[in-house]
Amino acid sequence: MKKTLFLTLLITLFTLELGLAYAGKDAPAAVTNSFKGKYPGTKVSGWDYREDQGAYVAEFKMNDKKKYAWFSPDGAWLATSGELKLDDLPPAIITALTTGEFKDWTFGDYREVDSPNGKYIKVKAKYGNQEQHLKYNEAGVLIEKVNAKAGDKTLPY
User: Fold this and answer.
1) Starting from the edge strand earliest in sequence, which strands make up the sheet with 55-62, in order?
2) Strand pairing report for 142-147 and 55-62
3) What are 27-36's pLDDT values in tens digits?
């Protein structure tokens, strides 16, 4: 009897824990409605809440490319990003990376970002134990650098 009671209690707790783990994965109506307004007819493959960013993130496909759209909890669109390959970068950005302030650094995680403030390309740069998130406009001008190791982060990342 004690084993059955214990097993029942264990299963109940596991079910509750699992339910709590998935709670909050769906975005509130204000967020989903904002997504539908911004990307009508586009299907979201998943929602995630990024507590460290205070944002809901929708994963979806557009033109056969995976994209991520960030929204504040009240539904304001913050940004949309998609991964790029090195070959997809504008030549001006490649020139800036290979001849500019960070020419000796290693680059990766290239992203095209559209935000209310305009479009830019985000690049993660590493040198030793240093890491910077670099934002370039399409003309190859560095518009922002953020020390990722210091805990400073930029949306989206």
Assistant:
1) 44-50, 55-62, 65-71, 77-84, 106-115, 118-127, 130-136, 142-147
2) unpaired
3) 999 999 999 9
Angle at 156 between CA 68 and CA 139, to 5 degrees: 100
Please give the structure tokens belonging to residue 50.
């990024």
User: What backbone torsions phi and psi does residue 110 show, to the nearest 5 degrees?
Assistant: -85, 130
Query: CB 71: neighbour CB atoms within 10 A?
Result: 25
Report how far Cα 145 is from the mean position of its chain's Cα atoms.
17
Residue range 74-111, pLDDT digits in tens:
999 999 999 999 999 999 999 999 999 999 999 999 99
* Residues contacting 41, CB < 8 A, separation 6+: none
Confidence (pTM): 0.75
